[in-house]
Amino acid sequence: MENQKEHFRHILLFYFCKGKNASQAHKKLCAVYGDEALKERQCQNWFAKFRSGDFSLKDEKRSGRPVEVDDALIKAIINSDCHSTTREIAEKLHVSHTCIENHLKQLGYIRKLDTWVPQELKESQLMQRISSCDLLKKRNENDPFLKRLITGDEKWVVYNNIKRKRSWSRPGELTQTTSKADIHQKKVLLSVWWDYKGIVYFEFLPPNRPINSDVYIEQLTKLNNAVEEKRPELTNRKGVVFHHDNARPHTSLVTWQKLMELGWDVLPHPPYSPDLAPSDYFLFRSLQNSLNGKNFNNDDDVKSYLIQFFANKNQKFFERGIMMLPERWQKVIDQNGQYITE
């Protein structure tokens, strides 16, 4: 390879002495050796060197850091601190950061933004997540209950849903800016409960009526009526298996008394675990994706949109959201309680 490079340079010097320019020399060389023989930019560089009076055809010895580096050392540094920059790795291994970038690319590493999680989990919280998931997984294996499961939650739906866009810019130019949605803007609070077949019951709360225990108990009564009407098989057989998160209105004493009165089997849910709540990891994510860029004029517009959104989802959609629970339980166990990030 080195001999071939030097051979090409002899040819370039020959054409330089014949009075040809770099472009002409490049065309003649490629006509004989193929288009990939030498880049035109390389020809131009060598011609510039010849014009300066330097007719040496060998590469100059390079000073500075060596470019050879053991991939295992790079992996070890990343495993010890996955936030290490290419320059930090280069300094530790005494090579150029360009060399590290090339090796990382060959190793298949890409740089990603950290994913936001609800909070840093303490060891006791990690153990609680593992314990809950193990319990639910084993219970479902012994007595499958997912087709009896009804789950629900609340979500604010704002009038103006801003969609952040990507834009092209040149190096050094400022990126385009987009204002975040005003947290005090008009919005509607959606409460929804669903199972593997679809929506069982949903409602919109008046703007100035927050969710508290009294409101939640009223909602549970309406939900029970909807279950008796839409899912009579649940009330006639083994009964409802109910899932909600640990929001204060959901865990108050009066709420527990109401749930006992209804006779529903309430599943345990570890604190700070939206990744184990089907509404959060599935239904609301799909809803928010559909809302991006949408603007509404009033509550009725929002409600009409949400009604249509739910109506357009078939049973397979809802079934997928519920039936992925065992896989997520196992994943939490495998990850020693850490959050599922996607």
Automatic annotation (TrEMBL):
Domain of life per record: Eukaryota
GO CC annotations on file: condensed chromosome; nucleus; site of double-strand break
Any Pfam family matching the protein: HTH_48
Species assigned in the record: Pipistrellus kuhlii (Kuhl's pipistrelle)
A single MF term (Gene Ontology): double-stranded DNA binding
Residue stretches making up the Mos1 transposase HTH domain: 5-54
Entry protein name: Mos1 transposase HTH domain-containing protein
GO biological process, one term: replication fork processing
